[in-house]
């Protein structure tokens, strides 16, 4: 019997997979590899609480290299490599190597990321029970690298933030691209929350400060931020005193998991979650800074937590964003992306009809917007005078009466929030033609059901002087035509240290070093050459795109800084973000975020036909970005050069418009009239060749050409078989195919499109409407966006050119 037992023991010893035993101990041996697929087994900590590996995202073919809580239902991510290299496609791998540590590769075997700071040979990796992945050295058993030193948006107990440490928010709960907010432990000892991710001290961008800096006596300043083993967070001062951040009554660590995360909405929140599953899988917020994120951003730059024209209410420590009645989300999938009015208004319309016949005013209270939206004050004023002043001003969207002064505001409205105990009255303009059939409240019922207290606050807005005034539609103007925004005056005080926006003023030497002497060229455009670079922000290196401008005057300091200011104020998910600039002697450079998936041109005109669904999403995104430039940013921008090369794609293949706002920079160095041609041949609207006013309709024309390219995956001028041979201009060929009812010829061999003929026809008709030779026949970009999204019916377009109608 003993002999049989020894045989079984020997077989067990020979064939037992000891890598499983090693994994359960948290140890990862050199040469271990994980693959991005559903069957990949992650590297677990000894307790099994944490796992290191690839997390599958909503897009089933994309994975996130990350560390997550493995025992709870939602597998919450506590660390990931970063938005610049994540997510990665199916088939990617990560390997622990002896010389380089962790190495992440794409399915083709190309390096994407590595722990390149390794200075000694690796002995092993260790996924410990605190959520920290550690790489240990062979010689002296020291730590070569650990994930705790490279936090992204979350810190865990036993983790600390030292000088220069920074957390970045995500775009959303499920989008791991870098968001709008950052938390930084600054060199002066302050813990700061700010809008934007560039490490500069800009008072208008900061919405929380720990006030732990003392320039007179540095010993009274903060030294580091500690999240200790008991889940207590505090700032350790240089004089050994502490400033407690966490309130009393911390749920015990023995029974709960803890984490502190810079949420995508801008709040730094301490969460806890029961270690034993209780049927309630969600994390509970224990405390947050600031306490009320809705009101904390009052006075800061940008759109606020909820985006422009939205209103923020706090429910259970979390912001709830709602569009007022009469408004819709800019992006139906993004509640924090801002709102847009459902009706249009312009100053020109007032000439056709008395203002009282078109608009009325709704009186209310308990809502406030940033004073950055204010453009005129009527002082002294009464309720009747304030109401009339807004009603008769075509620029006015809302007026606020406080302390006998009437403050008029225009769109876009920023930092909207519900407030109480303020001695003010709000007058909201609305269009009579957009009156609802039944009275309703300012916010949809979905938000009111969440919190009765907030319902009481916002219902006070319904107070009016007649039944008609109980019908709530927030009046708004249509984000302006060009003449409206040309009247806006920037309150700029430019200096060589930077303009009054969330931008960093880089030295030329810094950018030369970041680009390795401007070595790696990404592309060339109308304004100069773009180079790839790396700029260190805290402990993380960010990849950036640096554009050297070569057609801007060297002696136009005020004009240059004013235009950079205007570009820097833009904030939209479909625009490439400007991070900083250089204004030094003869050098003019702009620093942008880097887009890893290149240009739309490379996607459309490659050898492989890309997904029809992806192409339609890209077209919709470009349209939304142009709507923002034309109607919703603080100073209207006409792009003047919309083409595939100026549409970049981020990590999720979202369309991002680049080079916007540069048309005015080009003007600084050139004496040009409105009829001088800007743009690229084939995308240029006909009015550029005539002595006529240039409006935003030139971008509509260019978008129409681009939309047809997106549909057909062919350039605007290309060899196309028209039945007669020879070259064909894409716009002409599309019109011929549309007239003759053979749209299938446009997408030959693209079977995905051929199965979606209704959308194909709709998109072709939209493209033809956009390329109408007469600008007045072209729709606005807002209407184009609504047509693409199915909100507005697309009628049959006329022939785009009178020339063709006569032959």
Automatic annotation (TrEMBL):
Q: Which reaction does it catalyse?
A: L-threonyl-[protein] + ATP = O-phospho-L-threonyl-[protein] + ADP + H(+); L-seryl-[protein] + ATP = O-phospho-L-seryl-[protein] + ADP + H(+)
Q: The Protein kinase domain covers which part of the protein?
A: 516-804
Identify the main location.
membrane
Describe the location of the Bulb-type lectin domain by residue ranges: 25-148
* Residues annotated as signal peptide: 1-22
Q: Which UniProt keywords apply?
A: ATP-binding, Disulfide bond, EGF-like domain, Glycoprotein, Kinase, Lectin, Membrane, Nucleotide-binding, Receptor, Serine/threonine-protein kinase, Signal, Transferase, Transmembrane, Transmembrane helix
What protein family does this chain belong to?
Answer: Belongs to the protein kinase superfamily. Ser/Thr protein kinase family.
Stored Pfam families: B_lectin (PF01453), Pkinase (PF00069)
According to the UniProt entry, what is the EC number of this protein?
A: 2.7.11.1
Q: What's the protein called, per UniProt? A: Receptor-like serine/threonine-protein kinase
Detail which positions bind ATP.
548
Organism, scientific name: Coffea arabica (Arabian coffee)
| Subcellular localization, as worded in the UniProt entry | Membrane
Which gene is transcribed and translated to give this protein? LOC113713019
Q: Name one GO cellular component term.
A: membrane
Source organism, top-level taxon:
Eukaryota
């Amino acid at each position: 019997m003993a002999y049989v037992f020894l045989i079984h023991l020997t077989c067990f010893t020979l064939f037992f997979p000891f890598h499983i035993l090693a994994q359960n101990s948290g140890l990862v041996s050199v040469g271990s590899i994980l693959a991005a697929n559903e069957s990949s087994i992650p590297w677990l900590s000894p307790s099994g609480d944490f796992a290191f590996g690839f997390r599958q995202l909503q897009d089933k073919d994309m994975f996130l290299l990350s560390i997550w809580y493995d025992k709870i239902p939602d597998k919450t991510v506590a660390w990931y490599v970063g938005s610049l290299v994540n997510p990665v496609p199916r088939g990617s791998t990560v390997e622990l190597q002896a010389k380089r540590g962790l190495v992440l590769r794409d399915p083709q075997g190309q390096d994407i990321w590595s722990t390149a700071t390794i200075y000694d040979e690796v002995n092993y990796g260790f996924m410990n029970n605190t959520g920290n992945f550690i790489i240990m050295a062979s010689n002296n058993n020291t730590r070569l690298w650990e994930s705790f030193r490279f936090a992204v948006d979350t810190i865990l107990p036993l983790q600390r933030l030292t000088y220069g440490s920074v957390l970045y928010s995500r775009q959303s709960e499920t989008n791991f691209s870098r968001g709008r907010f950052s938390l930084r432990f600054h060199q002066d000892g302050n813990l700061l929350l700010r809008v934007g991710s560039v490490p500069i001290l800009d008072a208008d961008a900061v919405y929380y400060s720990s006030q732990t800096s003392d320039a007179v006596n540095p010993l009274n300043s903060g030294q580091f931020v500690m999240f200790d083993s008991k889940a207590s967070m505090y700032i350790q001062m240089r004089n050994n005193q502490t400033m407690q951040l966490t309130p009393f009554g911390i749920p015990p660590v023995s029974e709960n998991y803890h984490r502190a995360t810079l949420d995508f909405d801008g709040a730094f929140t301490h969460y806890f979650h029961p270690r034993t599953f209780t049927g309630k899988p969600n994390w509970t917020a224990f405390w947050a800074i600031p306490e009320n994120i809705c009101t904390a951003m009052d006075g800061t730059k940008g759109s606020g937590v909820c985006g422009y024209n939205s209103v923020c209410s706090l429910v259970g420590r979390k912001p709830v964003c709602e569009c007022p009645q009469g408004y819709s989300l800019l992006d139906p999938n993004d509640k924090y992306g801002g709102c847009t009015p459902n009706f249009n208004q312009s100053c020109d319309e007032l000439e056709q009809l008395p203002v009282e016949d078109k608009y009325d005013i709704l009186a209310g209270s308990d809502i406030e917007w940033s004073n950055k939206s204010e453009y005129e004050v009527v002082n002294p004023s009464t309720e009747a005078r304030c109401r009339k002043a807004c009603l008769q001003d075509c620029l006015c969207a809302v007026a606020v009466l406080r302390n006998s002064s009437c403050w008029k505001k225009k769109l876009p409205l920023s930092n909207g929030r519900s407030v109480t105990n303020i001695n003010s009255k709000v007058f909201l303009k609305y269009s009579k033609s957009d009156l609802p059939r039944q009275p309703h409240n300012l916010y949809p019922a979905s938000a009111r059901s969440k919190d009765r207290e907030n319902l009481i606050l916002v219902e006070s807005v319904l107070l009016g002087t007649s039944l008609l005034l109980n019908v709530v539609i927030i009046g708004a103007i249509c984000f302006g035509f060009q003449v409206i925004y040309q009247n806006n005056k920037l309150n700029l005080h430019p200096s060589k240290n930077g303009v009054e926006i969330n931008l960093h003023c880089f030295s030329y030497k810094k950018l030369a070093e970041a680009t390795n002497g401007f070595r790696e060229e990404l592309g060339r455009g109308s304004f100069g050459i773009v180079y790839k670079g790396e700029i260190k922000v805290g402990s993380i290196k960010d990849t950036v795109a640096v554009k050297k401008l070569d057609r801007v005057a060297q002696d136009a300091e005020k004009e240059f800084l004013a235009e950079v200011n205007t570009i820097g104020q833009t904030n939209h998910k479909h625009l490439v973000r400007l991070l900083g600039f250089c204004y030094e002697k003869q050098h003019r450079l702009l620093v942008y975020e880097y887009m890893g998936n290149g240009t739309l041109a490379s996607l459309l005109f490659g050898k492989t036909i890309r997904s029809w669904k992806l192409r339609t999403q890209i077209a919709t995104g470009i349209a939304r970005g142009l709507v923002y430039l034309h109607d919703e940013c603080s100073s209207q921008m006409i792009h003047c050069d919309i083409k595939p090369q100026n549409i970049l794609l981020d990590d999720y293949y979202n369309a991002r418009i680049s080079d916007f706002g540069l048309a005015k920079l080009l003007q600084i160095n050139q004496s040009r009239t409105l009829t001088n041609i800007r743009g690229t041949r084939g995308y240029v609207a006909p009015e550029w060749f005539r002595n006529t006013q240039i409006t935003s309709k030139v971008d509509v024309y260019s978008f129409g050409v681009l939309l047809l390219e997106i549909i057909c995956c062919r350039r605007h001028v290309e060899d196309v078989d028209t039945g007669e041979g020879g070259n064909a201009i894409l716009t002409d060929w599309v019109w011929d195919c549309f007239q003759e009812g053979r749209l299938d010829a446009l997408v030959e061999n693209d079977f995905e499109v051929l199965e979606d003929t209704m959308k194909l026809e709709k998109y072709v008709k939209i493209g033809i409407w956009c390329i109408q030779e007469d600008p007045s026949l072209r729709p606005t970009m807002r209407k184009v966006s609504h047509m693409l999204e199915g909100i507005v019916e697309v009628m049959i377009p006329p022939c785009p050119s009178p020339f063709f109608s006569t032959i």
